[in-house]
Specification:
about 50% strand, about 100 residues, 4-stranded antiparallel sheet, Immunoglobulin-like, single chain, 7 strands, disordered N terminus, 3-stranded antiparallel sheet, mainly beta
């Protein structure tokens, strides 16, 4: 009899509390146009990904953050209705949030 077990952990928050002190995605739910606004002391390269429920990366873009705050409007009108994972990654830091697309 196999008594081994496995645990799966899904990261839904910031790995480093100092990485992002404020993250806002609005409006949420959205029709495909939304803003990502975040503040962190960390500057440099970061990536924003949008991942569908099947785990496929459907949007990915790299940015350079040279100030404490970052704000960008995304216009993605071809997104299907559903729930997406928005992932913000910078170095070893990761932030995950859900984005809901409606019509």
């Amino acid at each position: 009899m196999d008594t081994s077990s496995a645990a799966v952990t899904y990261q839904t928050s910031i790995i480093s509390a100092q990485a992002c002190t404020f993250v806002r995605i609005y409006p949420n739910p959205s029709t495909g146009t939304f803003e990502v606004d975040f503040t962190s002391a960390e500057k440099g390269d970061f990536t924003i990904k949008l991942i569908n429920i099947a785990g496929q990366v459907i949007y990915k873009d790299n940015f350079i953050k040279d100030k404490v705050s970052f704000k960008k409007t995304f216009v993605l009108p071809d997104l299907s209705i559903g729930v997406y994972q928005l992932q913000l990654e910078s170095g070893m830091n990761l932030f995950n949030s859900l984005l809901i697309i409606t019509r």
